[in-house]
Design brief:
By secondary structure, this protein is largely without helices or strands. The chain has 1 helix and 3 strands. It has a 3-stranded antiparallel sheet with strand order 2-1-3. Strand 1 and strand 2 form a beta hairpin. The longest helix is centred in the N-terminal third of the chain and has 7 residues. It is rod-shaped and about 80 Å long. It starts with 14 loop residues before the first strand and ends in a 44-residue tail after the last strand.
Length: 106
């Protein structure tokens, strides 16, 4: 996939596809330069005629099935699993025996 504005191949980072134009994709830096229609939209690829009028374009972030975010999502704290029992620890079944003599081989 090639950026239609700066002609970079392949597009690294986010890719924005125009809903109004057929096969019109721009990279993240060109989308930022376009600034929602108040900036510039160059056409260095020049393989298709693109409108320079901001109202003609409606870009949206495009993610396909292979998209992987570079930044990890800011979720809550991860949940730790229970610590693994060692052979000489008391068994968690409540028998009072060591784990290796009770439930280790079950």
């Amino acid at each position: 996939i090639t950026c239609d504005a700066c002609a970079v191949v392949p597009i690294f980072g986010y890719r924005y596809a125009c809903k109004s134009c057929a096969s019109h994709d721009v990279c993240e830096s060109c989308y930022d330069a376009w600034a929602g229609g108040t900036g510039i939209m160059p056409n260095k690829l020049a393989k298709q005629t693109l409108s320079t009028h901001p109202a003609d374009h409606c870009f949206k972030l495009y993610k396909d099935q292979t998209f992987k975010s570079v930044v990890k999502p800011a979720g809550g704290a991860s949940v730790k699993s229970a610590p693994k029992l060692k052979p000489n620890d008391n068994c968690d079944c409540g028998s009072g025996k060591k784990y290796k003599k009770c439930c280790m081989n079950k």
